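Review this fold:
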Amino acid sequence: MGLVGVPDAAGAREDGFDWFCETVSSDVMPVTLNTPRAADFRAGITHLDLGVVRLSAVSCSPVLSRRTPAHVRRGDPEHLQLALVTRGGVRISQRGNDSTVAGALVLTDTSRPSEGACTGAQTETVVVQIPRQVLALGSDRVDGLLARGLAADTGSGAILADFMKTLLTRGPHCRPEELRGMGSITLDLATAFLARQLGDPGRAPAEARAQETLQRIHRFVENNLGDPDLTPRLIAERHNVSLRSLHALFGDQPLTVSAHIRQRRLERAHADLACAELSGRPVQVIAARWGFSSATAFSRAFREAYGLAPTEHRASSLAASPPVPRHAEHRIRARHAHHRGLPGPGFPSGDTAPG
């Protein structure tokens, strides 16, 4: 989701109730909506991409919402939504809790059924959408806060609410890298606030930062698998952490940093070798494309991972695939070259692939 400016209430869209239903279901989550004001329904939805979290502003005429188990099965972003009601009121029911909120915060979970209603002539909310996996608080404990009004005029609630409102007005003028930093701060503030509601401020913000850093590192690795210099040391330097801290972040992961890099490179090469459109590409070029600087190291690692040589995997995969027209090979070659800058077919000397 790109950076989108947030309009004020007067600038809210007037495209009607059908637009609002479609936008909520496609941009947020599947839900059934009804309104007594379909003829003159007014609404606006905008988003601010903050990297690890997303901030949304929603303005709408009176509307009733219902999210059933069927809706959850059809589409679930697996988010916790922390909403600040800045105008009008919101009535929400979830997990046996029922509250009417005005001028306060309320937490909901997209993975659970819920019912809600926006009351008043026009309701406005600011919503932080937090992926479940980055919140360093136990699910069973956070569930106790769902659909309960949470004060936004004192303590950490007031700080969080002020920050969310300021971010809406100032955020559209920030650079993307600044917004990613603001996303980390937003996650810290939201985590600290929720931990306080649970009576356990503890180390949750620090744990949330560690989780967010790990997510950024995984994204960085995915985007740089073709770089033969992608090593744990480079990753640590690019993320301003020590090498020891980097290895500690991966302490609870299934693989070490180096093993994770190697596995993802092998998986990408494995997929390319099975692709009929790339059948004219030499094996060593595909290996080099995914960061293997040694043909010997690539072949050995591939055989260890998959039980057969790269050429054997390609032959067995392509035997079951129809031939690709030559012009299609040219198109795929041009597309890959445009997006990644393909390395040449040669390898430097040495048998040890980095990572």
In short: The two ends are 31 Å apart (CA to CA).
